[in-house]
Amino acid sequence: MYLRSFHMDKRIPAFPCEPERGFVLVVALLLLTLLIAIAAELATLTSVETVVAARRQAGLQHELAVESTLLVLADVLDNRSRTNLLTDIDQTNEARLNVEIATVKVVCSIRDDGGKLNPLLFESEDQSEALRRKLRLLQTQKGLPICDVHLRPILGDSTQGGLRFHWFDQLLDDAPPGSFFHLGDSASERFHRSVWSDVLTFWGDGRIDLRRVDPIVLEAALEDLRPGLAQKLLASRPADRTVDFRQIALAHIDSEIRERVAARLTFDDHRYALRIDTILGADRRKWYVVARIENGKTTVLHRSPVTW
After folding, report:
1. What is the mean pLDDT of residues 90-96?
2. From 70-79, 109-118, 132-141, 297-306, the region with the lowest mean pLDDT
3. CA 156 to CA 164: how far, in whole Å?
4. CA-to-CA distance for 130 and 47, rounded, in angstroms?
5. pLDDT tens for each residue of 200-245
6. How far apart are CA 9 and CA 13, in angstroms?
7. Quick check: helix, strand or coil at residue 15?
8. How far is 212 from 252, CA to CA, in rounded Å?
9. Could you tell me where the beta strands, DSSP code E, fall in the chain?
10. In 10 A of CB 202, how many CB atoms?
11. Sign (positive/negative) of CA torsion 180, 181, 184, 186?
């Protein structure tokens, strides 16, 4: 008896039947869409990270350019035979230094910061009205941007004590853009349009540096003692701005106020206000730096980016 074996021919279709085929296509499309979304997200994240890294690197280059500029200035100002920067500041109250540090171009405007009014001299409550008057006088005489004078001192640190002013917005309200710093680059703006940083400083001990002080600023600083003092003092200022003429100038001041006037004056404080533009390709940034530069050494008193 033979056992007859046979193989059943079970036919398998090349494609799923219609309901199965539709389901597979939907799943495939969903998976494809998900993969595309994931790939796009990964690409976006990579792109963002690249941009962040590039901006971080550019920011570091700008920062290093500022640091390097301060080193260059310390060297140049200490070696007077190699520069006319101090002469330019003496004659026009501004000097310019153009340097290129690696791939960053630097344009640096150098001004005397010592010959500005410092609210430190008038921060006590009983002098607040005098300070308001001085600010309004500067606003009128120098053609400064119109701002509301509103004094808001804050408690000073443990070494100074008392109330302190640290920034322009503690003195002035409703300041239009460009009130505190020169934001443009044209020479006409710098020389024919005054801003508040031209006449106010928050650094140093409060005394006015007679070497390059503007007569209007000096008058504002001293008018509460007696009007007209600036004219008397500066009448003795020689053409050679390196000569300390305080004693000669004070000899023309009445003896009853001479000591009080002398207490508000200094000479050649070596403190400079720097507006530094760093340019890396199309990326241009502005900085405001106040530094004491003397004997090849630099002490930075303030540094901040200018964004308004």
Report:
1. 88
2. 70-79
3. 5
4. 57
5. 999 998 899 999 999 999 999 999 999 999 999 999 999 999 999 9
6. 13
7. coil
8. 19
9. 95-101, 104-112, 148-149, 154-155, 163-164, 172-173, 208-209, 265-266, 271-280, 283-294, 297-305
10. 21
11. positive
